[in-house]
Amino acid sequence: MTDAAWESIRRWLDSGSLQPAAVISNGGKSVVLDLSAGSEALGEPLDGLDVVRFSELVDTFMQRENPPVAYGRWGEHRALYNNENFADASGERRTIHMGIDVFCRAGTPVCTPLGGRIEIVANNNSELDYGPLMVVRHVSPDGHPFFTLYGHLGPECLARFKPGQSLRAGQAIATVGAPPGNGNWPPHLHFQLILDLLDRGHNFPGVARASEQEYWLGVSPSPACFFPAVPAAALDGRNQ
User: Fold this and answer.
1) 0.85 exceeded by the pTM?
2) Structural domain contains residue 240
3) Which range of residues forms the domain containing residue 31?
4) pLDDT score, position 240
5) pLDDT tens-digit map of 117-170
6) Going by C-beta distance under 8 Å and a sequence separation of 6 or more, which residues neighbour residue 91?
7) Do residues 223 and 192 make contact, with C-beta atoms less than 8 angstroms apart?
């Protein structure tokens, strides 16, 4: 896809004319978590935590504050990714979060915000990977395709849906998964906007290297437009 097509999609998504169905209902209350490097928003430093302790802190926060959902920010630099999945021979870990997280109870319904067609249904079952995931293909008014990715789902979607199936806006496509089957993360949806899959299929990254963030955050721009009840700036981890 050309840069002009990407820009056309971005303009449409940011125009204010989009009226998406709710991906996950927030019950009229929104809480945004600071999961950035150096943060102590969950009561202790997050840098270098293993997933067990991170999950305990998230669970404690959700039980204490009792929000319907809590959001994790797009574009945020995080020091949570210590698994070998996030490192390579270059020595630079992937630390820039490319989607928006929606922390909530396991089993919470997940809906597609726009009509579209299922592109991918897969189970990335490695530790700290997506677990069950779906990718849905949409088309802009100008005819340009783009995609939404849903990660850390419950397993029922794997048998229920197949690539090529049509979906309507607001259709329930999955539920939020639970550990260990969801990649062994605390229950949440990873929601990501993708302008071009770049032939990466179900292995499209959800976290990028800091040295490459300009490129990857261009391919996966902020999906804040799909969460209109929350100010877009509050969901932009680059602003913090």
Assistant:
1) yes
2) no
3) 3-235
4) 66
5) 999 999 999 988 999 999 999 999 999 999 999 999 999 999 999 999 999 999
6) none
7) yes
Query: What's the pLDDT tens digit per position in 194-231?
Result: 999 999 999 999 999 999 999 999 999 999 999 999 99
**8 A C-beta contact, residue 205 and residue 198:** no
CB proximity list for 51: less than 8 A, separation 6 or greater = 83, 128, 184, 185
Identity (one letter) of the amino acid at 157?
A: C
Residue among 98, 176, 191, 193 nearest 138 (CA): 193
Burial profile 43-76: b = 16 or more Cβ within 10 angstroms, e = fewer: eeebeebebeebbebbeebbeeeebbbbbbbbbb
- Phi, psi of 203, deg, nearest 5: -100, 20
Q: What is the CATH number of the domain that holds 181?
A: 2.70.70.10
Count up the domains in the chain and report the number: 1
Burial 149-162 (b: 16+ CB within 10 A, else e): bbbbbbbebbeebe
The full DSSP string for 82-126 is: -SGGG--TTSPPEEEE-SEEEE--TT-EEE-SS-EEEEEEEEE-S
DSSP SS3 for 73:
coil
